Model the fold of this input.
Amino acid sequence: GKITGAPMVYVSGEEMTAYVMDLILTKWIEPHVDTRAWERFDLRAKNRDDTEDQVLRDVITAGKRLKAIFKEPTVTPTADQVKRLGLRKSWGSPNGAMRRGWNGITISRDTIHIEGVELGYKAPVYFERHAVGGEYSAGFKNVGRGKLVTTFTPSEGADAGKTIEVDARDITDAEAAVVTYHNPYDNVHDLARIFFGRCLEAKITPYVVTKKTVFKWQEPFWQIMKKVYDAEFKQKFVDAGVVKPGSELVHLLSDAATMKLVQWTQGGFGMAAHNYDGDVLTDELAQMHKSPGFITSNLVGVDENGVLIKEFEASHGTVADMDEARLRGEETSLNPLGMVEGLIGAMNHAANVHNVDKDRTHAFTAHMRKSIHELFREGKGTRDLSGPSGLTTEAFIDAVAERLDNH
Done:
């Protein structure tokens, strides 16, 4: 009989990627997997507008309950799209709300590899981007000349209720921007365990990236990472032969990391960084490794009982220009691998967390990945890798479907 799909959240988006995922669900998944336990949500900009974003709140609630989420690329509408789609307002990116709602620890972004196909890095590169803090949730005000004082009032400890001055300065420009943000560091212990655990399993060398020489407030990030590494992982990395006996965890300054990503094309390393550095460096990683289509994107959060909540998506957007070509009746060739890796991750995590048809789910997702890789190796992939003789979007999906049906 069919594989029993474990309960998970399926979030649909729009444009080209939604079209492709609909085909994949119809031709690859539904014939082999009973997905009745999946809970589906429509996160198109129009539906977010129609529901006053209740749909996003529902996604977050369901994700907390089910722990496994797959999300198709979605549109964060520009001013132009707001007019064109007839929206009441521009709904912000759903990512921030998801990171907060699921107590985001890290966004894991890793290179995807196809044996026998040259991409960018030879061996895997793993990246851990702190999912919270930094500029993304900053408060700001555009001001003129005057005095700026930043204060803090502790809610516990000996100084509870007292006003402490963090910083005081004179603003002498007629036009200036004042910005306040903070980096929450309590969950960096969890980030460290996820990062070092993944690097150890893959036998790759971990590096911690900050700009702490200049941005002195980033020092605790490094200290926590090092403490966890020394206490829980150092000996394991030596025993596994990943690092030499007596070697220490290596810190890289973020500007050095930008150069290492270009130099170290052999791969076989991992980096962990703050939110903003992670954002920029993973874009560079994607560029070095052919395109965002060959990078995973996986948000890891945690519920109040310590169970990991994992949300999987592709690292690329909705590929609007290809969708316009498709709607004009032109041939397209979209590589679905990044999205399929996300779907595989969500299905596997759901099966593990809910202990539902685990072995058969893992066997099926592995076969799905293998079928895609085989076609690429045989030169029957999409045109980004197989050149002009490669298959169209639809022909490639049919080719994989055929291999899944014959299995």
